[in-house]
Amino acid sequence: MTPGRRSTAAPLAAKGDPDPQAATRPVMVAVAQPLTRGTLVAALRSRGFRVIAGPSDPARVADEVQGQAVGTIIIDHSVDVAELRSRLPDVRLLLLDTSEGHHAQANADRAERLAPYVSLDDLAAVLNGERTAAQAAARRLRPAGTTEASPPPTSELTPRELEVLRELMSGVTAAGIAMRLGISRHTVRTHLQNIFGKLGVHTRLEAVAVALQAGLRPAPGAVADAGNGERQ
After folding, report:
1. Residue range 83-111, pLDDT digits in tens
2. d(CA 186, CA 109)
3. CA gap 198, 192 in Å, rounded
């Protein structure tokens, strides 16, 4: 089977996924941050999945699912996981989560946790039913033949490159990043080229997807200016 494409095989049994046809049904991405939501939608569609962008209001997720035969919902902590599980007992829930401790444990029996640094390829495998979220996390954090956790892909970035990437995650253009960080557009483009090279990506969308999977947060106070000015 081509990597990253949806399988017609029955998925592995997992909490919240009793339906053997879940892997062939649409995926809803219902996370609060608009750029995160859009990035995941675009990335999964590029891998052949049928994806529905969830509502901006977390309280409306369950209502939006009604009548759409959704098999899996990717959520974050903006959603009331307990209520969603009670209203949608047969839908698989994947919790995009970088938290630890009690908050993470509280939802362990309601949704599968997508741990930090899980790649989009492994996420596709989880959605295909080829492995569970826990198995995908183990693959990423425990590569074959090693006993130490591998560093996130963003670990090679300089502090300034991380600043630029976090601005990028907020939807700010190259011109906006230059203004916010007090540097020239040329310097921003140089940083973006270095970021793309170190992350092994070619577009802003791919860079943001990698950053999200590495647990980075968008820059605070940034105002998206996607429609104003040029983009890198």
Report:
1. 999 999 989 998 876 554 445 445 556 88
2. 49
3. 10
Distance CA 132, CA 86 (A): 21
**Statement: residue 75 has pLDDT above 80:** yes
Tokens of 44: 């999964």
How many whole angstroms separate alpha carbon 196 and alpha carbon 203?
7
Where helices occur in the chain by DSSP H, the ranges are: 34-46, 61-65, 81-87, 101-106, 120-128, 133-141, 159-169, 174-181, 185-199, 204-213
- Smallest CA-to-CA distance from 202 within 213, 193, 211 is with 193
The predicted model gives 51-65 an average pLDDT of 89
pTM above 0.90, yes or no: no
Residue that has been written with the tokens 């990597």 in this structure = 3
CA–CA separation, 76 and 112 (whole Å): 11
Q: Which residues pair with 53 in a beta bridge?
A: 29
Average pLDDT, stretch 174-192? 93
Q: What are phi and psi of 104, to 5 degrees?
A: -70, -40
> Residue 24 and residue 111: Cα distance in Å, rounded?
19
Strand ranges across the sheet with 92-96? 51-53, 27-30, 72-75, 92-96, 112-114
Note the pLDDT of residue 158: 93
